[in-house]
Amino acid sequence: MNTAPITTWEGAEAYFTFADKPAMLVAITLVGIAVCVWTVISIAKHENESYKKM
Q: Under a CB-based contact definition with an 8 Å cutoff, are residues 18 and 12 in contact?
C-alpha cells in the first residue's frame, strides 16, 4: 500500500555541477578542515578556562 505521491524512482537524477572543478572541491575540503580545526581549538580553550576556574 503506497500512499506517497512519488510512486517510482524512474528518471530521478542529481546534478553536481562543481564535480568537474578541482578548485571547488579543494575549497569545500578546506572549509571543512577549517571548521573542524576551529571546533577543536574552541573546545580546548573552553576546557582550559574551565579547568583554571576550578
A: no
Other CB atoms within 10 Å distance of the CB of residue 24: 13
Closest by CA to 28, choosing from 38, 37, 18, is: 18
Contact 17, 25 (CB under 8 A): no
What CA–CA distance (Å, rounded) separates 35 from 41?
A: 10
Q: pLDDT tens digits, residue range 31-43?
A: 999 999 999 999 9
1-52 per-position pLDDT tens digit:
557 777 777 887 877 777 788 998 899 999 999 999 999 999 999 999 998 8
